Amino acid sequence: MSWAFLRDLLSGVNKYSTGIGRIWVAVVFMFRLLVYVAAAENIWKHEHDEFECNIKQPGCENVCFDHFFPVSHIRLWALQLIMVSTPSLLVIFHVAYRENREKHQNQKLYRNPGKIDGGLLCTYLISLILKTGFEIVFLVLFYKLYNGFKIPRLVKCDIKPCPNIVDCYISKPTEKMIFLYFLVATSCLCIVLNLGELSYLIFKYSIKCYLKRHVKKQQ
């Protein structure tokens, strides 16, 4: 899979982000996207082929793998990366709308089309809420699908057509668990950064509005 589009998207978002937003972009790009492409993708590349059970009953190994891994970790991570990054398109589209509006009317309508204020502020806040929501949803989804954030060495399966309780072994469980904890930790860090940026912007513009009202009252 080519991640060029996601890389370009994150680079575009960086132009219109606050300081905290730029840290978020760096974390997503360096500690999630690059780690995913360079290492994590290869670790889970042959997870089905390397899943072994101590019986050769036709179909048993397949149904056991499907039961314990209903969705591939790596595909779920890929979907998570895409979903938490795409809300930033709202900000890029809004800035493009401002620039296009100025171009058509042939006059300066904004001091800076990329400045976070007015309608763009609302769009930016919505994108932060969506990104945070997607992060939480995927963390809950991971926890529910795999019964926690852990990779067991051995799983016991008694689903038909397995004739009895079968022992199945997962390859490289320690290595997979280390990367799982790392990706969960970076996801939690992104949630903290999004909430921090959300609180910062709300506080900043609340103070700004308060000061404007105070000046008007004095005048």
From TrEMBL:
Enumerate the Gene Ontology biological process terms.
Answer: cell-cell signaling
GO MF annotation list: gap junction channel activity
Q: Which PROSITE patterns match?
A: CONNEXINS_2 (PS00408)
Annotated transmembrane regions: 21-39, 77-97, 118-143, 178-203
In this protein, which residues make up the domain named Connexin N-terminal?
42-75
Indicate how the chain sits in the lipid bilayer.
Multi-pass membrane protein
Q: Which UniProt keywords apply?
A: Cell junction, Cell membrane, Gap junction, Membrane, Transmembrane, Transmembrane helix
Localisation per UniProt entry:
Cell junction, Gap junction; Cell membrane
Connexin cysteine-rich domain segment(s): 134-201
Pfam family of the protein (one): Connexin
The record's subunit annotation is:
A connexon is composed of a hexamer of connexins.
Tell me the protein's name.
Gap junction protein
Keyword Ribosomal protein belongs to the record: no
User: InterPro entries in the record, alphabetically?
Assistant: Connexin, Connexin_CCC, Connexin_CS, Connexin_N, Connexin_N_sf
Q: What is the stated purpose of this protein?
A: One gap junction consists of a cluster of closely packed pairs of transmembrane channels, the connexons, through which materials of low MW diffuse from one cell to a neighboring cell.
Q: Which SMART domains match?
A: CNX, Connexin_CCC
Keyword ATP-binding included in the entry's annotation: no
The UniProt similarity line reads: Belongs to the connexin family.
